[in-house]
Amino acid sequence: MTRQISPHRALLGAALLALAGCGAKTPTYTGYVEADYALISAPQSGWITAVNVDRGAVIKNGDALFTLDADLQTAAESEAAQRAAAAQANVRDLQRGARPADLAPLEAQRINAQAQYDLATRDEARWRPLVDKGFASKAKLDEIVAQRESARAQLAQIDKTIAAEKLSARSDQLAAARANSAAANSVVAQAAWTKGQRSIESRIAGAVEDRLREPGEFVAAGQPVLSVLPEGRTFVRFFVPQEDIAGLRVGDVLNLSCDGCADGMQARIRFISREAEFTPPVIFSERERQRLVFMVEAAPEGGDVILRPGLPVDVRAAALKSKGKERHG
Predict the structure, then answer these.
(1) Which of 35, 78, 95, 315 has the greatest number of CB atoms lying within 10 Å of its CB?
(2) Rounded CA gap, 177 and 89, in Å?
């Protein structure tokens, strides 16, 4: 069965086999620098109004990257603020109780009831002696007494109503009004957050590799606008022949060298592929086993190590025990 790989990997595989054959004690493999890029996407849909960074720019946390139009979000925030103000005003109104204008009709009713009570009291004072002497009907006196008691009861009822109106609303009503006010404030916070998402700030430090969108373009939510290479996200990828792979482990330290690089660079193996692949396309046979390689990835160590993606590097491991015969360059 024939298995195809990319020409890029085929060339690298051929080079590493040639280099690995020179010096059995310290195998050298040719690899290249790769990177885990971060795509900075738009959290919401909208028109891009500005892109604040160019390719190659170095960014840090909090730097402004790009902005989206925010007309709709500004209107929504204003609406939420007005609703929150209305809810808070309702709470204050319920806490204060009735206004003087609301109490005026009750005060007028009380004056009328008081006048009826006073009149009934005076009539009773005049008619009672006449009834006691037999000059007036007792039924008339009973009618006057009933009018007086009715006016007194009406006065008492009006006084209770006025007192109740002067009090704040019931506790349940106040609790409901306060809950509505808190909910309205939460909507304001949500509207402000949504508006804030129209101005995208960096949450990583690194270098801008590419601008994928420009001002005037419309982007959907989740669509990338910038490609960024974060700090510490480069790694070395190389290929190891099948007879040497058993001598490597995740966590092993390797020596790196490249044109123009500082001496003494090291990397630590972070990944070893479980699947083998061929270096140029071949038909697998026992004779062609030396073409079988495994992909290995190693992360450079040291915060000051700067390797550009695509840079060819040489990887040297410690002496490996090979099952096959010793190779000579």
Answers:
(1) 315
(2) 10
Give pLDDT tens digits for 259-277: 888 788 899 999 999 988 7
pTM: 0.61
The tokens describing 147, both together, are 């009018």
Answer whether 309's CB lies under 8 Å from 33's CB: yes
The larger pLDDT score, comparing residue 63 to residue 99, is at 63
Strand blocks (E) in 130-181: none
pLDDT at residue 163 in the model: 73
Helix (H) or strand (E) run with residue 80 in it: helix 71-96
Report the alpha-carbon distance of residue 329 to residue 327 in Å, rounded: 7
Q: Which of 296, 293, 225, 213 is CA-nearest to residue 256? A: 296
Residue among 19, 41, 17, 40 at smallest CA distance from 28 = 19
Which residues, 6 or more positions from 73, have their beta carbon under 8 angstroms from its beta carbon? 191, 194, 195, 198
Contact 161/113 with Cβ under 8 angstroms?
no
> What is the C-alpha to C-alpha distance for residues 265 and 311, in angstroms, rounded to an integer?
14
For the record, the structure tokens of 30 come out as 């040719």
The count of other CB atoms within 10 Å of the CB of residue 42 is: 21
pLDDT computed for residue 14 by the predictor: 46
